[in-house]
Amino acid sequence: MIEVFVTVNYKDKNYQTNVIVNKEMTLEKIKQLAEEQVIKQWDF
Fold first, then answer.
1. Residue 5: how many CA atoms within 13 Å on its side-chain side?
2. Domain limits at 19?
3. Which of 12, 17, 30, 40 has the fewest CB atoms within 10 Å of its CB?
């Protein structure tokens, strides 16, 4: 497991978040997890 920092653009704002992922995980899946995390946090 590794910690990855990702910048996500959501509603025309940039958010930096970190996700814990397996080393074998694809970049696409990492990006998807980060986007889901930002949406959960900021969509209220």
1. 3
2. 2-42
3. 12
């889901």: which residue's tokens? 36
With contact defined as beta carbons under 8 Å apart, do 41 and 33 qualify? Answer: no
Instruction: Give the integer Cα–Cα distance in Å for 27 and 10.
Output: 18
The total domain count for the chain is 1
Distance, in Å, from the CA atom of 20 to the CA atom of 30, rounded to the nearest integer, reads: 9
Tell me the average confidence (pLDDT) per consecutive run of 10 residues in the chain, 44 residues long. 96 95 95 96 84
Tokens of 24: 């074998």
